Every structure is written in C-alpha cells, then in structure tokens.
Protein 1
Amino acid sequence: MNTSQQADLILHNGRITTLDPKYPQAKNVAIKGGRIVGVDDAESYARGPATRAIDLKGRRLIPGLNDSHMHIIRGGLSYNLELRWDGVPSLADALRMLKEQAQRTPPGQWVRVIGGWSEFQFAERRMPTLEEINAVSPETPVFVLHLYCRGMLNKAALRACGYTKDTPNPPAGEIQRDGNGNPTGLLIARPNAGILYATVGKQPKLPPEQQMNSSRHFMRELNRLGLTSLVDAGGGSQIYPDDYAIIEELHKRGEMTVRMAYNIFTQKPKQEKEDFMRCMKLTAPGKGDDFYRCNGAGEMLVYSAADFEDFLEPRPDLPSNLEKDLKEVVSLLAANKWPFRLHATYDESISRMLNVFEEVNREIPFKGTNWFFDHCETISDRSLERVKALGGGIAIQDRMAFQGEYFLDRYGRQAAERTPPVRKMLELGIPVGAGTDATRVASYNPWLSLYWLVSGNTLGGASLYTGANRLSREEALRLYTQGSSWFSGDSGKKGTIAVGQLADVVALTEDYLSVPEEGIKGIESVLTIVDGKIVYGAGEFQDLAPAPLPVLPEWSPIKVYGGYGAPLDIRKAARAGVPVPQHQHTAECHSHGCLHAAHQLLVGIKAAAPRYSDFWGLGCDCFAF
C-alpha cells in the first residue's frame, strides 16, 4: 500500500494504451494534483474520502488528443452563431437545417455556415446551388463558406454586404456576376481568401459575455471528441491582444477545458516587422502556464509568403519581394529567440522560404528556437532534408481529406500519393504533429484526421495514398499526442500515460485500435479528463459530467443541432430510428421555462412526416437521412 499518497482519481478496469514504449498497455491509472502518479499500480495508493474511483468497464483509454494546428481562439468567439454542416450526411439535411435556422434567427442577424465541410461528404455528392439557398432563406441573410475556395451569399446577404453591380472585385478575389453585371452571390477566392475573410468580417458579432459562453461551448465540443490540447495558429483579423481578451478572461476564471498554446499572426501587410515588434513588448514565448501560454509567431509571418491551398485554382506565384520581407521578420524572431511557424503548401514556395531560413541561420543560428512549417502538401524530398538540417518540424493537417478530389483532378494520382509525404518525414526523423487546421478549411473533428492518416482516403472515399504513405493506427495516434507536444515545447510533459505527465486522458465510444476502419470517423469520447478533472461524460459516465451550460444567444443553432454531425438534431435522429432523449431540467429552465422542451417534443413528433416533398418534388424526403 502506497500510504504516502492518496490518489485524487483512480481509473480501473480499462484497456489503456499508454504510448509509453516501456509499458505500452495497462489496466489502471492513478492521478493526483493534475498529474499521473501511477500506472498499473493503482491498488497501492491509499483511498481517502475524497478519492474517486471510476470503473472504465473495459473501455479503451488513450492519452488526450492534441491538435497541432487549429484556430480555436477565433473560432470560439463565433461558435454559437454558426450552423455546422461538418458531419451532416446529406445536402437535403443541410438545407433543411439552414431553412429551420433562418426561421428562428432574429432580424439583423445572419445564418452562417463557416466551413469545415465537403460536398463529397453528402449523399448527393454536390454543392448547394444559390437557387436552393435563396429558396430556403429568402429574407434572412445567409453566408455559406466552402473551405477557403468560395463563399455563397443569398440575396438578403448581398444587400446586407452592399455588394452591387458597381462593387469592384477586390484584389485577388472575384464577385461572380450574371450577364447584366449583377452579383450572383458566389464569391471566389482567386487566388487567395481575402474576399472571404472580408465577408465574414461584415457579419454581426456576439457581445463579450456571449463570446465567453460560445468559447466555453466550443471547448466542450472539442472535449466531446477527445481533444484536450491544441496549438492555436492565430488567424486573419485576429489581432493581439484585443481578440485574445475573451480566452484570457476564461483562463483567469479557471473555465478552460482545453489546454492551448497560441501563436501570433501578423495583421499588417507591409508592416509585419513593426507588428511583431509591437507584440514583443506585450508578451513573450512561454508566458503563461500549462493551460494557456504564448507559443511564438505565425502561422502568417509576412503576407508576401501566403500560398493559399485552393486546389480548384492554379498554384499561386508568390511575389519577388517574398525573400526580403521574410528575412526581415525571421531575423527579428531569431534574434529574440521567438519560435515561429509558417504556412506553406507548395514546394515551389517552401524552397524559397528555406533559402531565407538558411541565410538567416548563418547569421543568427536557430539552435534552441523551435520553428516549423505548417501543411507542406507537395514538399519535395530535397526540401525535407533541408528542414531536417535546420532542426525544423512539420505540422500536418487533413486538408487533403476535404480537397483531395480537387487535387486529383488538377495534378493527377501520382502527385497526390505524397500529399504530404508523411512516411518520408518520419523516416528522416523530422518532428511531425497532426491536426486539422479547423474551423474553416477542415472540420475540428480529430477522428476524421486520424481516419485520413490511417486509410489514405478523403471524406468522400477517394483513395489518395498507397500503403507506403499510410500510417498504422498507433503511429497516427502518436502524431496526435506525442508528436503534437513538440510543437508547443511540451515533449515529455504530455502525450503519454506515464508517471509525471499531465493527467489528460480520454475513454472512447469504440476501440480505436480494432474498430473497422470506416468506424474511426464515428469515434467520440465517453469520458474526457483534463488536469485530472472530468470535463466531459456521456453514456455510462453521463452522471459524472459537469453541469450543463446554457447556450447564448437563445436562438443559437448550437442549441438545436449541436456541433459536429448535428448530434442534437431530433428530426434527423427520429428518422434514423434513434430514440428522442427525454428532457432534463437545468438551471436554464428557471429563466426560460420548459417551453423549449415542448418545442423539442413537437419537432420530434413531426419528424416522422415528410416535410420536404414539395421542395424536392419527390413525394418523400428520403435524401434527408
């Protein structure tokens, strides 16, 4: 009996994948003070009155997942405003959801679908049309963002944006027009996403208290999917420190349920060096704690180096001033020991960036400063060797799972087989972390990314890679845990279920190591623990879950549909034969009554009756399953 320590939490009777090569499998784990204190020796720890023991009932337990590239700080501010199409199985369902949300959205607000989905996920395997979007929402403004390729505005949104016949095309973007020169509602990123950024920026924002609520719901959504850590890659229009005030307040309140290290993204074209000098006076790498701290600069360092990944369009040629601009900023970062990351899609861009890095490294050695590329879909073997020589890493994401069909059409199967060349990266010993690049160019669901790494398939089922560039399930899991920890300077601190590491673990709905390959996409958490505390519980662990949060504003699509896969969509569940959950009273009922429960019940009753027969002209709504 280990009488010197009383564990706070003991998890037992599990199938535990530790990812510790010295002790790869275990049945129990002991946690105290937010750290793992015992693996497979939980019975040796004294159990005091405050010790909680949880029977995992044979569930697979893994280290908490860690996304090395996500945009949660920006995404959290608007999560409650967004209708999520990622994980929705049919376009008919997506359009129904859009129509219903338009009816409940108050005047002055928009319905917005901000990326994260692919038309190839739909049973119909096509995009919505502008006619369909206008039909389901003739009066409420709608913006549907499709990756960073294009955006769709209904007529009401065109009016709200002020886009008319006289509106000129912005630089590097196109407003599609009809034969009379009037905007149709289609916005095309050609060759970059500036017009899409600008259109998102025209939409109403939540007030601060509701942004806090929204950010907390987004973190809980990530907990539902097994995510416990991430590295935030900044983002367009995400200004430091202004747009970080909400997450910093949540950190002060102790209300974060996902650990995050954040990178700072420049916001001033042609003034990038001055922008970073300003930020250096306000913060520094490592400032913060294990829940929230500065991670350095990027993913945008200079605007002249932005090679957006729209595979519907030809590869962009970057301007001749790239080298001068990039050297100025990287020299500043290296001199001040600021870690940095840089968005890079194409090898043609990467080779030029590496020329700059090598030149700066000769003058100001990078040694001791973490740096890495993001994405690298077409990086060459020669460029990989140069990255290795400079001590860099590569953070990869499942963007090809969403755009693989476009890449195949433009560049062919042979080129697609190494997009990116993950196996070669690992063979060279380059640090590699996995992630999503959510929330716009991919879904935040980590299991889609793990599925892509293992199967080599897109969400639509197109095969991209031969066996040589696919990973085993354990290899993929390592990239999503231990691998990603390198990118925030946390190697050895998290990513493994081992004594001394942070107590971030997840029990799964299905056994990731044995579930059929297609089933990987459907895995969720039933129990998520961060810092030794339960932040999410479902199924047999539902009673252990934290108290539910109200969803603000009242008309939020998240309140009705939830996040990935629309898990709260009662009509979709009813048609699929899933029992409608019983209403559970919460503190929210005291302020709003239970009218919302009556509404949910009414919706469930109506679910059995076809309601889209007139719209589709088919006499049924079987496409909506």
Note: The first strand starts at residue 2 and ends at 6.
Protein 2
Amino acid sequence: MIRIQTPLFATVAALAGLASVPAASHGSDAVVLYSAGIDGILNDSKDTALHAALVMMQQNGLSLPPGETSHQEEHAANLFVDVLLSQMDLRLSVHKPGPSSGDMPFGLVVSSRGNAGTSPKALVDDIQELARLDHAPRPVPAPDYPGFMTISDTDQGKPKMWIGTQDHGGHSTAAMSINTPPVLTDVDWSGCGVPSGVEPCCGVVIDFGAMSSVLAMASMMAPGADSMLSEWGLIGPKPIKIEGAAWRGGDSIRVGGRISNYGVHFGDLLTKDGIRNQDLSVVPADAVAMQVSRFNIGGMCDSMLKSIDGMAGSAMGGDAGKKPMKPSEAMCMQAKQMVGINPKTELIDYLGDTVVAYRSRSTGGDGLMSGVLLAKLSNADGMATSLGILAARLNAMVSPMSQGYAQMLSWSHADCGEVISITFPGVPIPLELSMVVKGDWLVMTLNPQAMVAACRQLDASSSVLNNPRFAKAVGRDAIGAMQVNFTDLPAQLDRGYGIAVGIMSAISNYTRPRQDAGAGVSMIMPPYADLVEGAEPCALIARMSGEDLIYSGSSDSSINVLITGASANMTAMLPLAAPLMLGVALPAMENAREAAEKARELARDRMEHNHNSGARHPQETLRND
C-alpha cells in the first residue's frame, strides 16, 4: 500500500517558498489557474447526479484503507479533495530577488469560496488543523490583514504564511498566502473573449513577461539558452503571454484564448492566407475528428535547424565560425550519405503549407486505424522521387538487419498510384504504414485500406463541408483561419458510453455510505437516449488578429457528455493494443523456443560425444580399478 508521506500543508509550503525569505511584496502574477468548482462546472441537467455524488463524498469524507492511513494523512487527503472541487483561484507571482542569495522571488496565493460541500470557514479551519498536526508554529493574528492569521517559521527556513477569510466580490473567501501578502484581485478574462459580467468555468494565464527575471537567470546556466528563449518569446522585448478560458454561453460551453505577441516571434510560420475550401474538401463528410492547419512547414523546420545551430555554436565557442558548414548542414549531409536524400533540400523543402489529420467512418470505422495524415506539397514530383530513393535505401539497410522481418514494399492501386508500405513478414504486427503522393498531397495512413479510402476522398464531391454539425459549429468561420479543430461528439457517444457508465458506477459505489447505502446517488450517468439528446460537437478555431493568435470555439455543456466522448477516443486505441502486444510477444516466444531447441541439441551432441569416446561413470571406473 502506497502511503502519503508528505502532508499537504508542508508540500504547498515547500513548492511556494523553497527557501528562507522575508515577507515579500506582491509581485506580478506569472501563472493564474482558475476553476469554478463543481458548482460552476456541473450545472448542466445531465450532470446533476454527478454533482450530488461528489458533494456527498465531501460531506462523508474519503473512504481510505483502515489502519493504513494516519489521521494527518486522512485529513490532508480530504482537504485536498475539498479544495480541488471548490471554486479556486491560484496565483503564482514573481518579484525581484532579494539581496540575499537564498531569497526566492516566488509567492503563492490560493483563494476559494468553497462549494455546496464545504464553506470558506471550514476550509480555513481544516488548513489550520493540518498545520497543527504538522507541528507548525502557532498562528497569530495579522494586524495588517483583518481576518487573517500568520504562521511564521523563518528560523527553520520556511516562508511566512497568511491564512484567513475576507470578503471579495461580495463573497466570503478563504485564502492562504505564502511568501506574499494575501491580496485578492480579479482577473481580466476579456482577452479570452469572456463577456463582461460572466464568470468563467475555468481559466489559465501564463505571463512569461512576469517571469523574465527568473528565466533570465536560468538561461545563464546553459550555453545558447538565452538566444533560444529570446527567439521563442520567453524573454526579451514583447514576451509571449498565454490566456485561455471557458464559460457558459446559451446551451454550450464557449472557449476562448489568446497568445499575445505570437506574430512577433513566430511570424515566419504564418501564411499569407488562411484555410480555404479546398483544404477542407479532403476531409470526408463522416469524419468524427479532424484538424486542418495552415502554416509555413519549411519555416518551422528552418527555425528548428537554426536553434540547433545556435546551441551547437555556443557549445563550440569560437570554433563555430571556423567550420566550413553549419552543424545542421553537416547533419543533413551525413543523412544523405546514409539514406540517399538530404532531408532539408530533398524532403522538407518539397512540403507546402497545409497539414490535415482526421479519423472517419469511411476510412476504417472512425477508430485509430482510420486515421489519415495529409500534407500539401509544393513539389509533388520531387517528393515522389525522394520517397522512392528513401524507401529503397532503408529497405536495403533494415531488411538484412531485421532478418527480413521488416521490409518496405511498393504496390499499385488504381485510385492511389504507386504506394509505399512498411510491412513485417512473418510477424503479426497489426500495422502496414503506407504513404503515397496523390496529386499535390502526401497521404499517410496506418493501413492500405485507409489509404485507398483517403485517396478516393481527394476526388470525391462531398466532404466535411456537407456535415450539418460541422456547418453549425464551424461553418464559414473556418475560411481564412490558421487552424480548425472539429470533433463530432454525437457520432462517437455510442462507442464510449459503456466505459463512461462504468466510470460513473464506480463513483456511485465509492461515494455511497456503507452505513446507509440507500442514501447514495444512483444512476449518475443518464440513460443513453437522454445523454445523446441535444449533444453538441466540439470545435476550436485559431486565427491571427494583429500580432496575437486568437482561439475561439465551443463544446457540449455536459461533463458527462464530454467524458463519454473521451471514453470513445480511448476505445479507438483498444483494437490496436492487443494485436500489437501479440505481434511483439510472438517473435520473443519464437526466439525463446529456438534458443531452447538449440540448447537441447547441444546437450544431445555432448552426450553422444561422451558415449562415442568411451567415457565411463566415475563409480564404474573405481570398480574396474
């Protein structure tokens, strides 16, 4: 049995403080994590029973193994669950380092209004009780912050803490502050698209500008790290800031986000125009999940190679400029000698600016094996030639090394042309990775059947544009966007319902009190017909607005629906898992059988040799003597 060895109180203090520091002033929020808790998230009618079960679990306490858990560990576990399920606002702030080398520039503030299962006062009482069980110093009133107590143990290398309640926004709010005063402020979520006066269900902010002093110090520890972090927008002028939030709008959950200054640092990845109808038409109408992206693939690869050159140059110091070619160029030349093509000039440079990935019913039942990946080509003939050379060279290298168990084969199909597949003769591996150049697209699949269906789709007259749910969730908003994601949840709920029912039955049983089993919550998951009624698909669209990358989308408002959809994606992996493990196990078993047979043959040969040479048993030799 694995036991909780570190109390929650001590763990939070260690994460926030990490060193002995004087009470620091409130710095800029570098990280913000917000959750409306189960009261704000589970308020769809399909989630009513789930909400009730979780509240009952809070009120009754966790069912932990008797005799295996101490009172302190049990108290910490229940407090952790209460905080996790409550409305919660977590802020990690960064301020200028102090004069002492031991000072750490971090502060943490966690505040909560509680939920239907616990109150702010109960949370504070539980935190103080946990501090007592952890033998922390006795709390004393904080005169500068009415309603708060302080726990100070700086002599032992622990940061100062404030614990208490205050009124914030008209609500009684519990707060715990470490290494920074307990100042509660509101977060402006308007950058994510949250309407004024609407409280989000959840949200996150990561402001690299607020971390600049810490990141700058960290970059000095590795050669070339400063230039890389600056290129990625993590330090320097106009740093990256990531914001994201979800909120309720009508009968769905709306999603929004912003990556500020994205274009400043990643402008070379952007294309002049966004997604077009022809980019969407390659996706079948029955696609259950898809992503279409428009970006400069070559620019992305050039940026990666530039980073490699920068790191290698810093490592070589002054010798970097004396080399006849850049480290990335040398790597590409070595690759050409091995596999016959230069991966930069004879592969990457042939790629275009559109990448499409999808799963659909028509390409193989909408599971993992129906997956298709397409890449637009700027030089289709060059790509076809490079793939042919690459396949021939790899086949000559890999086939002898694998004793023929792995081979690359070429075959033809009327709807595809010349296809290259990776096969595993004599081994039951459930994959036949296939690729082909069809028109100006590079098509890649996990099996030939999906390949044929995907190639037929390139010439089909219908596409995802004819899917009513896609039209409602995305529609014309896709045109001109940088990326479009679409998941047809209603089309997958039947496949994930069984697993989701099992999960909810487990929650129902766990939260049901043993002393009064009838008081538990039954049937947390609605019947299938009720669950699918009115279910909405998920969509997320990304587009540029000035120098910022903006995300917007929507999903179904029921967590039970979302869990069922996630379960459906889990089942998509199951048909591949068992055959894959079997395919890996059988060759190992065959090798073991062959080794045992060789050992038996060697033993027989030794016995025959001893017999033919007249060897006698030692006792027989003694008798004859």
Note: The longest strand covers residues 351-360.
